[in-house]
Specification:
mainly alpha; 2 domains; 3-stranded antiparallel sheet; 8 helices; 64% helix
């Protein structure tokens, strides 16, 4: 095994143990992010992310408003940027079942990253964190519930990424419009 990978795994394990995270899913997410951090190199990773995030955050609201034709103030009632991550701040995600709510949550989050920040693919860990924040994360069925024509996925397990399909993008804008009315 590559020594850089071994070092990254050791450092990540130490960091996760230091954090004393009890939830196994959150522990996996933290470990994955820590490994990525140490593999990319601490300094260059932090600097490049800070520069990109500062630029993108300042343009996020204007870009999202322009692409969805919804006023910034209304969008701020739906989304928030918390710790450089997009989260939903609505009291309840629309949907008749938990699976519908999970799909709608993923749709809204993917729309914000795509139309607001210009990211095409979003990691499953970001979606899982957003779902967890909204109390909609179900480890056993979350990925299964995202198998629909609205989403495209690539990768497997920890490397799984999602984006909205063409029809999914239109559905997402329609859902956002309905929520803001």
């Amino acid at each position: 095994m590559d020594t850089k990978l071994q070092d990254a795994l050791k450092k990540a394990n130490v960091e996760v143990e230091k954090a004393k995270i009890s939830d196994p899913e959150l522990k996996k997410i933290a470990f994955s992010k820590a490994v990525d951090f140490y593999l990319q190199g601490e300094k260059e990773s932090v600097q490049s992310r800070e520069t990109a995030n500062n630029t993108k955050e300042s343009d996020f609201w204007a870009t999202l408003a322009s692409s969805t034709n919804i006023e910034e103030e209304k969008l701020k009632d739906i989304y928030s940027i918390k710790d450089k991550q997009i989260v939903l701040v609505i009291s309840a995600v629309p949907g008749e079942s938990k699976a519908d709510k999970q799909r709608n949550l993923a749709t809204l989050i993917l729309l914000a990253y795509h139309s607001g920040l210009g990211y095409e693919w979003i990691s499953s860990s970001l979606l899982a964190e957003a779902a967890s924040h909204s109390k909609l994360y179900d480890t056993s069925k979350f990925a299964q519930n995202l198998k629909s024509d609205s989403f495209r996925s690539t990768g497997v397990k920890k490397g799984l990424k999602y984006k909205l399909s063409g029809p999914g993008l239109n559905d997402a804008k329609g859902l956002l419009t309905n929520i803001t009315k």
